[in-house]
Each structure stands twice: as structure tokens, then as C-alpha cells.
């Protein structure tokens, strides 16, 4: 019973739930503000994502007449719940070690694609041709960017496992512990290619430029989200905020999970700062400097460069050890 209570708390309050929602919406607000400043615009207030959620929650949800209503309603809930489960698994260094008994690193590989699957369900059930096209693009892109992610996870697992005298270690807690003793992987030259691969993975999984071909406003009019309004669209926005925290936090845990003195409050703030810095360099600056790639270009990109970097780290690890 205590374990059930603990996991429920970590899913609904911290690091998932309320904490992740607040941090995710704050990150999105900062991203929009900095992006506007880079384009010499004033931009919306940082709190605008919070205002948008409240506004959408008060509006009517309109269902497409010829769509598949049960799946259309279920898709945003499915994506949202999947992110809450994934955030429960993710550790916050110095505060929460993650759900160690659940095979967390392997479980994360199954939970991360849930928002993409939810978008596919949303688009295919909406009866909109734009939604169907967006769903097919999401499926193609997901297959492409999951390959380098798997290679990055393997590189980290083998680095920790071989360093501890074993084979591979698929525990986030062990990864954090190893780096606290031997130094962050971001300063290890054998792991730098894997870190670059993870940076390249982030825009694809978050659907931002140059890989924003799924919702592509000028082509697909938001694609899978075209028919959504009110609470359904708000749920997808919350799911996106949760995923922002998840993938940024995952990068922190895998490559620079160092802690600071000052107790759990200081480490929560430090975790949020690192997530924000990672977002600004990997998402905001890239989005401001690039245009949209075509679907075939995006697919080839992920099969080439991020995968090449991640496999290079794997090879270096085995050569050194």
C-alpha cells in the first residue's frame, strides 16, 4: 500500500501531475517569448500558455459529424495519461530516484511514443483529410526518430554497465549514481556523439521546426488537431507540455544529472533551470533559425545523422572498455 500511495503521488503531484504541468507550461511560455524576441517581436506574455488552457477549458467541444466519436474523445486522454505514467518513472536528481522496480529505462522506450500514437488516433478518427495526412506523417517520423533514441539509451546503458564491471545497466538511478561518482557524460568525449544525437532527437519528437511537418499550419492547418476544440484541444496542449518536461528531463538525467547543495528545493529549481537551458538551445534557437523540412528529408535525416552519432558513441564505448 505505501508503494501504491508513493507512485500515485509521483504521478499526480511530483514529478508528474501538477509540477510537470506548471513547469511544462512555463517552458512553453519562455520558448514563445524568446522565439519572438529573436524575430524582433514583443511576443506573448510568459504566462500565456496558462491563460490558453483556462480559455480552452471553458469552451464547447465540437465533435466532427462523420468522425469516430469514441476514439476522437479517447485520443487526448490516452496521450495525457501516458505522459503522467512516463513522468512518474523519470527521476529528478537529488529529489526522486524514479520507479526503480519497474525497469524504468526500458519502460520509458514504450511510454515516450504514446503522444505520437494519440495524435495518430486523433487524426485518423477525425474524418478530416488533413488529419489523416498528418497521422501518416507522424507515423513515418516516429519510426525515424525512435531509432537514434534507442541507440542513445543503449550507449548510456552500456557505458554505465561496462563501467561498473557488468554489461548494460537499464536503471535511471544507476545512471545518475554513476555520473555523480565519475562525472557527467556531457563532459565525456565518448558520450558527446550520443548527446548530439539526443539534441537532434528533441525537435522531431516535439514536432518543432524543422520537423513540424505533422501539424504544418501552412500546409495541413494543424493536421490531426484541426477538428479539436475546447477541452479536447486543451488536453492535447497539456500533453505537449508534459512531453516537453519529460524529454528535457530525460536529457538531464542521461547526460548531466549533477545536483547542488541546498536540499530538495534547490535541486528542483536546478532541474528546472537545466531543462530550460536545454530547451532554449535545442528547440528555440533551432526553430528560429530553420524552415520546415519535407517528410522525405526528415526521414532521411534521422536515419543518417542522429543515428550515426549515437552508434559512434556505442562503438567508442566498446573500443575503450
Automatic annotation (TrEMBL):
Entry annotated with the keyword Transmembrane: yes
Annotated TM spans: 12-30, 71-93, 105-122, 143-162, 182-201, 233-256, 268-289, 301-320
Keywords: Membrane, Transmembrane, Transmembrane helix
Keyword Transmembrane: yes
Cellular compartment(s): Membrane
Membrane topology: Multi-pass membrane protein
Lineage: superkingdom: Bacteria
PROSITE patterns the UniProt entry points to: COMPLEX1_ND1_2
InterPro entries per UniProt: ComplexI_Subunit1, NADH_UbQ_OxRdtase_su1/FPO, NADH_UbQ_OxRdtase_su1_CS
A GO CC term attached to the entry: plasma membrane
Protein's UniProt name: NADH-quinone oxidoreductase subunit H
Amino acid at each position: 500500500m505505501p508503494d501504491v500511495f508513493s507512485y500515485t503521488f509521483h504521478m499526480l503531484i511530483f514529478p508528474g501531475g501538477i509540477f510537470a504541468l506548471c513547469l511544462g507550461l512555463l517552458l512553453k511560455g519562455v520558448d514563445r517569448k524568446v522565439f519572438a524576441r529573436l524575430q524582433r517581436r514583443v511576443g506573448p506574455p510568459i504566462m500565456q500558455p496558462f491563460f490558453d488552457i483556462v480559455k480552452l477549458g471553458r469552451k464547447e467541444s465540437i465533435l466532427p459529424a462523420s468522425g469516430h466519436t469514441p476514439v476522437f474523445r479517447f485520443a487526448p486522454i490516452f496521450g495525457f495519461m501516458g505522459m503522467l505514467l512516463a513522468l512518474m518513472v523519470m527521476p529528478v536528481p537529488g529529489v526522486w530516484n524514479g520507479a526503480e522496480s519497474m525497469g524504468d529505462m526500458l519502460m520509458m522506450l514504450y511510454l515516450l511514443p504514446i503522444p505520437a500514437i494519440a495524435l495518430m488516433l486523433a487524426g485518423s478518427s477525425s474524418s478530416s483529410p488533413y488529419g489523416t495526412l498528418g497521422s501518416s506523417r507522424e507515423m513515418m517520423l516516429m519510426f525515424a526518430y525512435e531509432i537514434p533514441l534507442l541507440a542513445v539509451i543503449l550507449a548510456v546503458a552500456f557505458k554505465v554497465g561496462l563501467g561498473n564491471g557488468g554489461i548494460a545497466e537499464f536503471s535511471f538511478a544507476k545512471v545518475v549514481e554513476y555520473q555523480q561518482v565519475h562525472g557527467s557524460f556531457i563532459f565525456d568525449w565518448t558520450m558527446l556523439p550520443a548527446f548530439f544525437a539526443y539534441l537532434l532527437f528533441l525537435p522531431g519528437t516535439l514536432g518543432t521546426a524543422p520537423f513540424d511537418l505533422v501539424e504544418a499550419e501552412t500546409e495541413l492547418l494543424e493536421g490531426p488537431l484541426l477538428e479539436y476544440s475546447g477541452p479536447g484541444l486543451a488536453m492535447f496542449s497539456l500533453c505537449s507540455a508534459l512531453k516537453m518536461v519529460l524529454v528535457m528531463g530525460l536529457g538531464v538525467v542521461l547526460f548531466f544529472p549533477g545536483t547542488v547543495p541546498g536540499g530538495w528545493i534547490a535541486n528542483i529549481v536546478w532541474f528546472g533551470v537545466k531543462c530550460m537551458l536545454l530547451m532554449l538551445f535545442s528547440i528555440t534557437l533551432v526553430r528560429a533559425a530553420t524552415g520546415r523540412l519535407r517528410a522525405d528529408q526528415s526521414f532521411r535525416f534521422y536515419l543518417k545523422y542522429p543515428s550515426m552519432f549515437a552508434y559512434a558513441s556505442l562503438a567508442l564505448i566498446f573500443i575503450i572498455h
